[in-house]
Write a structure and sequence with these properties.
Blueprint lengths: L14 E10 L6 E10 L9 E7 L5 E7 L1 H4 L15 E9 L7 E7 L1
Length: 112
Amino acid sequence: MLKCTIELPKDANKLVIDDANLVEDGEYEGLLILTSTLVNQATHVQAYPRLELTLTDANDQAVLRRTFAPAEYLPANIVAASGIAAGKELPIKLLITADHQTVSGYRLFVNY
């Protein structure tokens, strides 16, 4: 009746990125593959966060930066609006083109 919307909690401190790994694809030049696991350590369901990926050079300076919305990293069978369950681990795989940049490292963060 009131047309109110109650959003899921958003506590980035309770979300952990585990086992992140960035490798070059062996078949396609310039293609990078990021794999990781997103873990909700909260005792309740939370909204899926955005993932911020920064690719860095040998001096740890940002070369490329991109933020991925949940719809970009969630498998097709997962509804973003349902949130990530308490204690749930979600495997993540992203394909990234590096635009012919030399990449030596990366940083991956969650945010809302």
